[in-house]
Amino acid sequence: MPRHRVVIVGAGFAGLKLANDLKGGSVDITIIDRRNHHLFQPLLYQVATTVLATSEIAWPIRSLYRNRPEVTTLLGEVVGVDLSEHTVSLRDGQGISYDTLVLATGARHAYFGHDEWEKVAPGLKTLEDATTIRRRVLLAFEKAEMEPDPERRKALLTFMVVGGGATGVELAGMIAELAHRALYREFRHIDTRTAKILLVEAGPRILPVFTPELSEYGRQALEKLGVDVRTGKSVTNCSAEGVKIGDEFIASQTLIWAAGVRASKAAVWLGVEADRAGRVVVRSDLTVPEMPDVFVIGDTASVVSENGRPVPGIAPAAKQQGAYVAKVIARRLAGAEPPRPFVYHHQGNLATIGRRAAVVEFGRLKLKGSIAWWIWGLAHIFFLIGTRSRIAVAASWLWVFLRGQHSARLITQRETIQDMDS
Amino acid sequence: MPRHRVVIVGAGFAGLKLANDLKGGSVDITIIDRRNHHLFQPLLYQVATTVLATSEIAWPIRSLYRNRPEVTTLLGEVVGVDLSEHTVSLRDGQGISYDTLVLATGARHAYFGHDEWEKVAPGLKTLEDATTIRRRVLLAFEKAEMEPDPERRKALLTFMVVGGGATGVELAGMIAELAHRALYREFRHIDTRTAKILLVEAGPRILPVFTPELSEYGRQALEKLGVDVRTGKSVTNCSAEGVKIGDEFIASQTLIWAAGVRASKAAVWLGVEADRAGRVVVRSDLTVPEMPDVFVIGDTASVVSENGRPVPGIAPAAKQQGAYVAKVIARRLAGAEPPRPFVYHHQGNLATIGRRAAVVEFGRLKLKGSIAWWIWGLAHIFFLIGTRSRIAVAASWLWVFLRGQHSARLITQRETIQDMDS
C-alpha cells in the first residue's frame, strides 16, 4: 500500500519540529515554504541591530533534511487548499497531494487597520525585514553626518520603536547600545550618543507577560541605556516625518513596528472561522473543526489551553504543537487511541535589554541583570541549529561584549526599493 | 595655517591604501564612497557561490578609521568635479572642498556595447552582484526540482559563465563543486550532479595571464570538476532563454558575465582623455595631465609601466598606486623632491579551481594543485582585515573543505526586483 503523505506548509519552529518528530515513521513528508531557509526568529532583532549576520540565524531547509530521503522540500508559495481533491495549490499552478495537511504558516505584523504605516514603520518577521531595519538605522546616522540643518539632524537621530513587548524592548535596547557605544567614535560631525531612542507602549507597562517587578526592572534598565520609555501612550499616526503619540508629534526618520501580529491566510485557504488576529480556531487535538485530516499549528492557530488562557505565539509553544501533531499522526497510522488533548506547558519568559541585562522568568524562578543575560544567551545558543552557527553566534557576541564592535553593519540594497523588498 | 585637505573618492584597495599610508601626516582626509563598506573583491566569487557570507569580506569604511580623528568618512555618490572651485559635487547637491583630489572609483563589468545583456547575465563587482548571482544559481536548482518538463529542467540545470579570466574560472569551478558535491543529496526529483557548467572564453586559452602550461592545467582541473570549457568561442547573443556562442544556441537559465570591465566616470567628471575601457590616462606620477592636484589610481586609471605593458587591474597594483600617491603628497607638503615615476612591481598571479586546486605564479616560481591552493588560501586570509574576518573565513573554508557544506546559501530578495537591485 502507498505510504501516507504528510504535507507541511511552513518551515518555522512548529513545522520543523513536526518533521523532525516524524523521523523513522513510515510517512512521506513534503515541506513547502516561500523561503529556502528556516529562520531563528528570537534572534532576528540582532540582525536588525547589526550584531548578527543573516547567515548566522538562518539555514537552508533542504540542507536540514539532506539525510532524510523521505522528506521533500519545495520552495513555493501556497495560494489555496482544495479540500475535496486533498491538494495544496501553489502560485505556479501545481497541486501537491496530501493525506494529512499541516498548516504552520505563521504570522506577520499588524497595523490595526493602518497598513499604510508599514512603509514608514517596518515590522520584524523576515530576514528582509531585518536588513531593511538595519539599513534604515545605519542610513539615519550616515545622513545625519551629512545634514547641516540641526532640526533635520535631530529627526535623523531620533529612533522610535512602537510596542513594548520583548521584541520592542530588545530592539530599543540594542539601538541604544549601537548609538551610545558601538558607533560614537566613528563620526566626525555628529555625536551619536545624542541620539534619542523612544519606546512607545499603549499598555500600562512594558514586557506585560512578566511580573510587574521584572517589567519595572526592564524599564529602568532601558532608561539606563538612554531609552525614553513611554507607556500608556498609543500611536495615532505614522508618517515619513515622524509619529503622533496621542496629540504629541515627534519628528523621527526611523520608525520600527513591534506591536501586534496578524496570522497568515490559512483560515482563508480553508474557508473556516478565524479569531480577531486572523488565526484559525482549532480543536483540542489541533485539527480544524470538521477537517480531521487538517491541522493548524503555531502562530497561525488559535489554541486555548486548559486554564482558559490563549497559548502565546512563541517558539516553545509552536514546537510543542508540532510535537503533539507528530504524536497524533503516528497513533492514527498505528490504529491506536488518539492522545489526550493538547496541553501547553509554559516554560517561561525571556527578554534582553542591551548587551548586559535581561529578565528571565521560569515559573517561580525570577532573575534579572547579567546573570539573566548569560542564561538567556546560553539558552539561545543551545537552540541554534548546528555547531557552525553556535560558534559563529558566540563569536559575534564575544566581539560585541569585549570589543563593543558590531560585526554585521553592511548597508546593502538601495533605500528606494525598500518598500518593495530588501 | 589650515591643514591640507585630501579628498579620496572610492574606498577600494587603492583608496584605503592611500588613506592608511597618509597616517601620521598633517593632512585632513575625507573618504567618499557610495557604499558604507570596503569590499574584498578577490573573494567576492565565493559569496556568489555560497561559500562565504557577505559580512565576512566587507567592512564598514568608517569603522576602519574610528581611531583616526583626522579621517572623515562620507556615504555619498559623486556626480562631478568642479576643478575651478576645487570641490567634488555629491548627488545630494553638497560640494566637498579639496586641496588634493584622488579618484579611485574603480570599474564595472562591460558588455562590449550590449548593455541589455546585463539583466540576463549579471557581472560580479558589488555585494549586490554577488547576492544576485547566488540567488539565481540557487533558484535554478529550486525551480528545476519543481519542473516537470525535461527540456526546461535541462535549461535550468545549465550554468553559463562568460569569460575565462580568474573570476570566470573561479565562478565555474565553485558552481561545479556546488552542483556535484554540496547539493546533490538534498534534492529528490533532480540529480544536481547532472548539471552542466559551461565556461566560454573568446581567446585561445583560459587564464591568459598565466603561462600556457598553467592555463592548460587550469583547463584540465576544471574539466575534472565537470566544467565544459569552450575557448576561441565568443558570445554573439544573451537572452533569458540562453546564449548564442557563434552559431550554436545553448539553452541556459543562469548566465554570469565575467568578461571585460569598464572604468568609472572619472574621466567624464574631469573632462579628460580616456582609453577604450574608459580609464583616465595619467602621467608617470599618477596625476592627470595639466591637473597636478588631481590623481587617478586603481582600476579607473590607465597606467603604463616601464616595459610598456599596461598595469593590470588587480588589488596589488591598486595598493601600489595608493602607496605611491601617499608618498607624492607627503613629499609635496614637506617641500621635498618628487619621488621617481611610479613603477609597478608585479608580484604574481593566483587563481583557484574549485576547493582543492589552484594555479600560482610568482616570477619564476610556478605552482599548481593543492599546494598552490593552500598558498592561495593563506595569502587571502592574510590580506583580510581584522582577526574576526580571518577566523570567520577560515572557519567557512574549513566547513567546505571537511564537510563539503556551504554555509551561505540564503536566498533573499525577490527575483522580480533583481534587475533593480538585490
From TrEMBL, chains A, B:
InterPro entries: FAD/NAD-bd_sf, FAD/NAD-binding_dom, NDH-2, NDH2-like_C. Keywords: FAD, Flavoprotein, NAD, Oxidoreductase, Transit peptide. Transmembrane segments: none annotated. The keyword Mitochondrion does not apply. Its EC number is 1.6.5.9. Residues 5-322 form the FAD/NAD(P)-binding domain. It catalyses: a quinone + NADH + H(+) = a quinol + NAD(+). It is an enzyme of class 1 (oxidoreductase). Residues 346-405 form the External alternative NADH-ubiquinone oxidoreductase-like C-terminal domain. Gene3D superfamilies: 3.50.50.100. Belongs to the NADH dehydrogenase family. This is NADH:ubiquinone reductase (non-electrogenic). It comes from Ciceribacter sichuanensis. The lineage of its organism: Bacteria, Pseudomonadati, Pseudomonadota, Alphaproteobacteria, Hyphomicrobiales.
